[in-house]
Specification:
Length: 96
């Protein structure tokens, strides 16, 4: 999954994206490699675990149950991984 969000202007105002032609659509700009005016987040891919015989995502040392619905949206900016949002099923014994 890819999530594209227009960047905020330097003065703090929200950039309004109103494409006049199909070529100006955010998705088309992304596919052409023009990403300077947008944030690009992707779904972090789970890794196979031989121990659990399934795919797992790490959730900052908090217990999570395996679920097809678990996901993390991340962006790599200047080699730094930025986590935007994550969703996971929690274990019953997890602190709330």
């Amino acid at each position: 999954m890819i999530v594209l969000i227009p960047k905020i202007k330097e003065d703090g105002s929200i950039a309004i994206w109103k494409p006049m032609k199909e070529v100006d659509l955010l998705t088309n700009q992304f596919e052409q490699g023009y990403t300077d005016n947008m944030f690009c987040f992707t779904s972090k891919q789970p890794k196979w675990s031989e121990l659990h015989k399934g795919y797992l995502l790490k959730y900052d040392n908090t217990p999570a149950l395996p679920s097809i619905k678990n996901f993390q949206l991340v962006s790599s900016t200047n080699g730094t991984l930025i986590k935007l949002i994550q969703y996971r099923r929690r274990c019953d014994n997890a602190s709330r």
